[in-house]
Design a protein that fits this description.
single chain; alpha+beta; FAD/NAD(P)-binding domain; D-Amino Acid Oxidase, Chain A, domain 2; 3 domains; five-stranded parallel β-sheet; 20 strands; disordered C terminus; FAD-bd; FAD binding
């Protein structure tokens, strides 16, 4: 790769920051990652990743990108205890979307393209961090907070940081600074301090709360990897239970609406779970061993900071991951979008450093747009979520409902739907003639056959 700079600094060591840092090692002589939390060697939740106690999966596209950046990491994850869905056996997944239970019969036709890893977020992140630490030109500096950016004549020249332990401050000169500090990113305020406007924000208020608990369930107790049945119109509670590494699982109960209180204890979580879950899954949960107390994660709103639309923006500064856009986490898109952002960063750097911020933010916005429409559209299918429902949104949600209805009995439709939700394919794939025939034509045939039978009986 062509070297285009001496030193790049990444702010934040979560998935978005680690993946961006890995890409930057191909183009900069040195890369430094600054992280406020003190990072240990174990896979443990941490303050800087508030969603780390909730269920996580590595969707298909995310897994592909991880393998491209860190060859062999998939085998490492599985070898250390992660579970991999790779045979296309639909009986392994209990997934109910919009009230439709996706078929659990048969196998998808192309399982090799839909590999999904099941593990906890700390487990996944610790494996990526270990790979990043092994890069000879990369240094992770933990226990440091970010104070400000340094800038000269419209160019960001570095970052001022403070060590949390003794409050000692220093300035790191940099040829590029990447903000991957997550939803609480201070870049909008720092831009304002430097005389730039804040980015325009798109937002959808959802007011969801997720309460989760890790539990150990012997492997022989359950055949599935995932159970999920979240909110539907008129029902403001939902659940998910996902395998993690080894015999560990995470169970989650979600509530929708600021006036719907989330479970406040293990007993309340179990009460909700019993009403929501399949009987055999709840029985396994009830006989399992809790590994920690419940953890609450509140998510008030999905938010997209439109850095891609800014007319004025300093050179040599990029923003990535949740610092740009954060979605309702139940859709599991965050790590995948961060991974796709890393691919976009690599493609932009291959074309040099000129106008990098403008090119990168516009390129990253393409994948963000897909995930944003998916998440926001799904949330707006719930009347409990306040927001403007455009005609395209209404039509799209009605069509998705027809797809999910077909997926109740058709493994091929289930496969194609998962290829899109796994971000392997664009949503336009769902409009192909083969899909339209199965979703619209076959359903029409079934309805006409049913009507004929009724008429004959009469």
């Amino acid at each position: 790769m062509t070297r285009i700079g001496g030193h790049a600094v990444v702010l934040g060591a979560s998935m978005a920051g680690l993946l961006a840092a890995r890409v930057l090692t191909d183009f900069y002589d040195r890369v430094t990652v600054i992280e406020r939390d003190v990072l240990g060697d174990t896979a443990a939740p941490r303050r800087g990743v508030p969603q780390s106690r909730q269920p996580h999966v590595v969707l298909a596209r995310c897994g592909q990108i991880l393998e491209e950046l860190f060859p062999g990491i998939g085998d490492e994850l599985v070898g250390d205890g992660a579970h991999e869905w790779r045979d296309g056996d639909l009986s392994r997944l209990y997934t109910r979307f919009g009230g439709h239970l996706i078929t659990q019969s048969g196998r998808i036709q192309d399982p090799s393209a839909l590999k999904i890893f099941y593990a906890s977020r700390p487990f996944i992140e610790s494996h990526v961090r270990r790979r990043v630490r092994g890069l000879s030109t990369l240094t992770i500096v933990d226990g440091h907070g970010v104070d400000s950016l340094t800038e000269h004549a419209g160019v960001v020249t570095g970052v001022r940081v403070t060590r949390e332990l003794d409050k000692a401050s220093r300035t790191l000169a940099a040829d590029l600074v990447v903000d991957a500090t997550g939803r609480g990113s201070r870049t909008p305020a720092l831009l304002e301090q430097m005389g730039y406007p804040r980015p325009r924000e798109e937002q959808l208020t959802v007011n969801v709360s997720y309460v989760s608990m890790p539990v150990r369930i012997p492997d022989v107790s359950l055949h599935e990897y995932l159970f999920i049945d979240m909110f539907v119109p008129g029902r403001s509670h939902g659940f998910a239970m996902s395998r993690c590494e080894n015999d560990d699982w995470v169970v989650l109960v979600g509530t929708l609406g600021k006036h719907v209180p989330p479970p406040a204890s293990v007993a309340e979580l179990m009460e909700h779970a019993e009403r929501l879950m399949p009987a055999h899954a709840f029985q396994a949960l009830r006989t399992g061993t809790p590994l920690a107390d419940i953890a609450l994660h509140r998510f008030p709103a999905s938010r997209w900071r439109r850095y891609d639309q800014m007319a004025r923006f300093p050179d040599r500064l990029l923003v990535t991951g949740d610092a740009v856009c954060s979605f309702n986490p139940i859709y599991g898109q965050g790590m995948t979008v961060a991974a796709i952002d890393a691919v976009a960063l690599h493609a932009c750097l291959r074309r040099g450093a000129d106008a990098l911020a403008r090119r990168y933010h516009r390129e990253a916005a393409k994948s963000i747009q897909v995930a944003w429409r998916t998440a926001v559209g799904s949330d707006l299918a719930l009347p409990e979520v306040e927001g403007r429902r455009t005609l395209p949104t209404k039509v799209s949600n009605a069509f998705i409902d027809r797809i999910l209805l077909a997926a109740e009995s058709d493994p091929w439709v289930a496969q194609e739907f998962q290829r899109v939700t796994g971000m392997l394919e664009p949503p336009a794939r769902l409009l192909r003639p083969a899909m339209l025939y199965r979703v619209l034509g076959k359903r029409g045939d079934r309805e006409r056959s049913a009507q004929t039978r009724v008429s004959s009986t009469a």
